[in-house]
Amino acid sequence: MEENNLKIKIAQGDFSFELEGPAEKVIEQFTDLKENGLGKLASPQKTSVIPSGPPARHQHPDGIKEDPPLNSSTSSQQKASPNGTRYISLRDLLLKQLPKSEPEWLLVYAFYSSNYAQNEFTRDDILLKYEETNRKTDNRMANLSNNIKAVVGKDWLRSLNDKDMLVTDEGITTAKEILSRTSSSKPKKVAAKKKKNGNDN
After folding, report:
1. What is the pLDDT of residues 125-152, one digit of tens each?
2. Does the pTM exceed 0.90?
3. Domains located in the chain, CATH noted
C-alpha cells in the first residue's frame, strides 16, 4: 500500500504544513481543509503539491498541478556564495573546460571546497571535487602533491598546518577570473617585457 502514499505540502508565505498518507485519505483531508478550514489560503494558484514515492495515478481535486519529484542534486545549478554572488556549477565548469591547467583546476576546487574562500579546506576536500567532476585519474593523483606545491608557489593557496589550507587574496582574484571566462576565451597572459638589447628568443 505504500506505493499509493501521497504527500501534499501547502505553503503560503511563512505558513506551511504537510499532509501525508494513503492517497485517497490525503486528497479527502486536503479537500476538507480547503473547503472548511483554509478557504482562500489554499487556492490552487498558491498551493504546491509534492508527490511522495512513485507518481500517483489519479487527478488531484480542482486541477492542482502536481510537481515532479525533487532532485537533491544541485551540481548543474549555479551556486550562490555567502555574499550573494552566483558562480558557475562544477558540472558546467567541466563542460566548458574553463580552467586551462591542472593548477587552475586545483585552485577552483579549493575555491569551491572552502565555501568560496570563506573557510579552510583540506586535501581530502580537493579529492572529493576530483571525484565529483570525474577527473580523478591515477596520473593526476600521482601528481597531486606537486600540483598543490605549484599552486602554493603561485601564492594562490596558503597552508595553515599539516592538514588545513586557505585560499589567498591572490587566489580569490584568480579563481574569479577563471570562473568569469567563456568556453572560447583564453586565460589572460601578462605581456613579457621585451629586452632592449639582445634577442627575444
Report:
1. 999 999 999 999 999 999 999 999 999 9
2. no
3. 2-63 (no CATH), 79-179 (1.10.10)
